[in-house]
Amino acid sequence: MLGKSFSFLCIISLLATFLTKNEKALADSIFGGAAKSVTVVISILGLMTLWNGILEVLKDAGVIEKLSKLLRPILKHIFPRAFKENTATEEITACVSANILGLSNATTPLALLAIGKMNEGRKSDKATNDMITLAILGCACFNIIPTTVIAMRVSQGASITYELLVPVWICSFVCMTVGIILCRLIGKICGDT
Amino acid sequence: MEILERISYYILPLILLIVALIILFGKKDYFDSFLRGAKNGAVSAVNLLPTLCALIVGVSMLTASGAGELLSQLVSPFFDKIGVPKELFPLILTRPISGSASLATFGELLSQNGADSFPALCASLIMASSDTFVYVICVYFSQVGIKKTRHALPVAIFVSCLSILLSCILCRIFY
Asked: pLDDT tens, A136-154?
């Protein structure tokens, strides 16, 4: 997927250069781009190091587990079948907590574990409603603190950094809620597999 | 709103305070946990470099060649109508597919328009409130052998479009 994206970008750029005659800018941009990738990594390196250290402490001290417990009563209504049959509930709560904290590296393995457990003993190749809801939460979830975005903005000299949190909370919360409601509605109408 | 904004400043310091208290009064050596996690974070950030390098070169070429401008011009009548700045087009294309590709376009967008410009603010909201839905749906379901994802993709597309529109509306209200 990424390889194809890279090839497309290069080919389209070359073709466009024949039209726009920006040869010099194109050649310069290759060096500039390679150098910029290092700047981007450096700009998020510090905050990612700090944030992952913080989260490891919270995980080891059981704070994340407590957060998961707080989420359980809410998640019961969002994943009715999983909680009724008591399958994968721990994996689901862990995955949603990771999503809320913006632990993007941890969410995918946790989600795979949860979906794998929900799929145990099933023969159908159709997704269940709860699996789809979990995937939608993976696409749009309430986000307490978008560390990467803030780190990038700070490194680019933005003056609006933390002020962004309020609109981020509103936007991510609305998107998540709409996603969940849509999933539950469609699930109700079409039934489950 | 002002109270919420105040709270937003305190979030990170408060989390740090909790961590500090845990390290001070915890039964185990929690600073060890911190160092272990921090190391993993540093390693995963550096591991991004090879992918980011290729993609940022690609995105820079796209902008420098003028192709980005041509493509944006193509969609700008439509984007104008729904109130989305045309500069967001590359981000909207890459956001669903890959985290590192969208990070590359996001960085380019910030440096091209200035981090406090209207398109950059909208882009920041989009980056923070939506994720790579094509990637998520492909990986989540294919790993366990599920082929029929039913309404997952339509709902994901709808939510992503909502996040784009809502981001632009919120930026207009707030800034």
From this structure: 999 999 988 888 898 899 8
